[in-house]
Structure formats: structure tokens, C-alpha cells
Design a protein that fits this description.
The chain is an alpha/beta fold. It contains 12 helices and 13 strands. It has helices at about 20-30, 60-65, 90-115, 150-165, 195-205, 225-235, 260-270, 285-300, 315-320, 330-335, 345-350, 365-390; strands at about 10-15, 35-40, 50-55, 75-80, 115-120, 135, 180-185, 185-190, 210-215, 220-225, 250-255, 280, 325. About 40% of the residues are buried.
């Protein structure tokens, strides 16, 4: 979708040093906005002219206030969060400080500084907690907080509610009110994504991707980074008066609009890098027990050795249980139209960065990893299978 050039406005992106935040910043810069990227980590790429990076931590109110000094920000895109996957999911205190405390700080400064528009990057997980959802929509209630299997999802739910409840609150430095909305994206992918895809590729290259799990008919969703960029820009526009503030106080699901089996989605990546797609399929309950065991081991040993869990319970649910959502509200109110993408550009990106199987390498080279995985799964079954009955898995 083409966007018209905007009069020079200033926007601020929290989490702007990350993959999606930086991509959004570059897109806005190309459309004529002056962009401030605010993050605790610098972007991995060179910062284009017209974009300013400010180092800061959203947990610290003073850092947030400094990011707004001497500029008239017209929209904040609040992307920064912590605890989405892997061992990050197990650091409850930091998750709470960033996702809830950080959001409180951003909202407070926005009201004080007179920022009229606020777009929050939420997640499917505020609704989903392991239950089957087919073509759900925004009328679905939030998952009760105690039912969330991980603290990231719980805190994102709390933060989203805070953002939407802040809609309509008075601004201090200018007439009018703060307009807010929340976007709930599916799993993000695209060339250069650094959170999920490298972890998957590392498993593939180390021979750990030797099985799939769950019902082969289970369906989940993904969203290409450029589709998500489009949705955020449209959401900000839909908070303006000339759009009737249609998005004010509203949540929206965002995806590519193509439900697919999680493992089949990644088949082109596996085979494109020269590896064999696994033929073994294991029960979801077994993998959940293994993930539970892994989390317990991390809880005990993590303070001495902060290893990366193979899978967490939430990741098992998110990849193995059907959950996908309608895009009708985003289409109707934002004008969102998902563009078609596939994993080919992702495959080419990894190949260009030295990944991919060398010609002539043998399947037997990963025999040690095969044995290790089988052993760990066996331990999980023997140790935790009774617990699975209690958990009604």
C-alpha cells in the first residue's frame, strides 16, 4: 500500500533499536516524518539521515522524559517489551518492570508532554493461553490473568488494558485528549529478523529439529514485518480527527491472514537451507511435559547457568494449538490489506550470511544430538507424565 508524504511531524518509537522498531522508523522516515528511536540497544544497521537514536531505558522515568525534550512529538509507537520467548520468558521481575512499569512511564510522559496519538504493539497472547480459537475477533474477552501460562503474556495484557483505558484522558501541554489503540500481531518474520528465526535456524543446523509435534491440522498465523509496518502507520492515521478518531480506544488483530500449520510454514526454510524436513511427529502432551521439565531445571540452575531452554510451555502452545483471528476489523476501520509474502527472502538472507548445509554433509553427523533429544524426551515422560494428568493435558 502506498502512503502519501506527510508534513514534517515528529514520531517517537520505543524499542526503535530492534528489528521491527527500526524497520518502522525507516518506513516513516521515507514518508517524511522526523523519527526518534528510543531503546536500550542501538540498531544493528546504520541510522539514515532524518532519524535520531536516543539511548535510554523505559523503566527509568528520567530516561523517558529526556527522549521528549525539545521536540513536539505527535505520535508514540510503543513497541518496547521483554520476555517474548526463550529464557527471557523466565525472568519475571524484568518482564514486569519493562512491560508494565515501562508502559506506565511512557503513558505518563505522553500526557504531560501533550502527545495526541499513541499506538501500542500488543500480542495475540492477551486473548490466547492454550485454548483453541478459530477466526476469533476483537469481541473476545481478555484471558483471565491467572490462566496465562507465562508472565510475558500476563503483563502484555495488563499493559494493553492500561493503554486502552488511557484513551480520552486530558493532555497537559495542549488542548485535546490522548488517543490510543493497540495492535495485536501474530509472530513476526522477515529477512534479518533476529529474535525467533536465528534460534530456529540454530536448532536446524545443530540437528535438533528432528521431529514435529501436535495435530497436523492445527493452524496458527504469522505476520511479515512489512505488513506490520503498514498496520502501525494506518493505526496512527486512524487516530486523527480527519479519520473520525475511528481507532480511538480500539484493539486490532494483525497478521498475513493465512492460517497455516506452524511446522509447514517453516518447511521452505528447512529445505531451502538444504536440510531434511522431519518425518517424526510426537504428541503435544509429551512436548509440553518436556518444556515444563526444562523450565523447572532452569528455575533451579538458571542463576548459575542461564541456558537457553529448548522450548517453553508457552512456545509449545503457540506453535501446536490452533489459534487464528479475523482481520475484518482492521480492514474495515484501518484500511489494512495484508500483502503476500513467503519465506524465500528469509532463506536467501540466511544463505547470504553463511548459513545452509554444505554439499555432501551426512545425516549421521547429528547422531549425538538425536540421542540427546531422545534421552531428554524419555526423561520428560518418565518424570512428568503423571503431572500431565493433573494439568488435564
Amino acid at each position: 500500500m502506498d502512503f502519501q508524504k506527510s508534513p514534517k511531524e515528529t514520531v517517537l518509537i520505543t524499542g526503535g533499536g530492534g528489528y521491527f522498531g527500526f524497520r518502522l522508523g525507516c518506513a516513516l522516515n521515507q514518508r517524511g516524518f522526523y523519527v526518534i528511536l528510543f531503546d536500550i540497544s542501538s540498531p544493528a544497521h546504520a541510522i539514515p539521515e532524518g532519524i535520531k537514536f536516543i539511548h535510554g531505558d523505559i523503566r527509568h522515568l528520567s530516561d523517558v522524559e529526556k527522549a521528549f525534550q525539545d521536540v513536539d512529538v505527535t505520535c508514540v509507537y510503543h513497541i518496547a517489551s521483554y520476555g517474548m520467548s526463550g529464557r527471557e520468558q523466565l525472568n519475571r521481575s524484568l518482564i514486569e518492570e519493562v512491560n508494565v512499569g515501562g508502559t506506565d512511564n511512557i503513558l505518563q510522559v505522553c500526557r504531560r508532554r501533550g502527545v495526541p496519538r499513541f499506538v501500542y504493539t500488543s500480542t495475540f497472547n492477551v486473548i490466547f493461553g492454550g485454548q483453541v480459537i478459530r477466526n476469533g475477533d476483537e469481541s473476545l474477552p481478555y484471558l483471565p490473568l491467572h490462566l496465562h501460562p507465562d508472565h510475558y503474556s500476563r503483563t502484555k495484557s495488563i499493559a494493553e488494558k492500561k493503554v486502552l483505558e488511557a484513551d480520552g484522558t486530558s493532555l497537559v501541554r495542549r488542548d485535546g485528549v490522548l488517543r490510543t489503540c493497540a495492535l495485536r500481531p501474530a509472530g513476526i518474520y522477515g529477512p534479518g529478523e533476529q529474535r525467533h528465526l536465528p534460534r530456529i535456524v540454530s536448532y536446524i543446523e545443530r540437528g535438533l529439529f528432528k521431529f514435529v509435534y501436535g495435530d497436523p491440522r492445527s493452524l496458527v498465523e504469522f505476520v511479515h514485518v512489512d505488513n506490520l509496518v503498514q498496520a502501525h502507520i494506518l493505526a496512527s492515521e486512524a487516530l486523527k480527527a480527519d479519520k473520525g478518531h475511528v481507532a480511538s480506544g480500539q484493539p486490532y488483530f494483525v497478521s498475513d491472514g493465512r492460517p497455516v500449520n506452524n511446522f509447514e510454514f517453516f518447511r521452505p526454510l528447512v529445505e531451502g537451507l538444504g536440510y531434511t524436513f522431519p518425518s517424526i511427529r510426537l504428541p503435544l502432551t509429551l512436548i509440553y511435559c518436556f518444556a515444563f521439565l526444562t523450565e523447572m531445571v532452569h528455575f533451579i540452575l538458571g542463576r548459575f547457568y542461564n541456558f537457553q531452554p529448548f522450548l517453553t510451555r508457552t512456545e509449545v502452545y503457540k506453535t501446536g494449538v490452533t489459534h487464528y483471528f479475523s482481520l475484518e476489523k482492521a480492514k474495515k476501520e484501518l484500511g489494512y490489506e495484508a500483502q503476500p509474502f513467503d519465506l524465500q527472502e528469509v532463506v536467501e538472507w540466511f544463505k547470504a550470511h553463511g548459513h545452509g548445509r554444505s554439499p555432501g554433509s551426512r545425516d549421521s553427523e547429528c547422531l549425538v544430538w538425536d540421542c540427546l533429544v531422545v534421552l531428554l524426551l524419555a526423561i520428560a515422560v518418565l518424570t512428568w507424565l503423571p503431572a500431565s494428568v493433573v494439568l488435564s493435558l
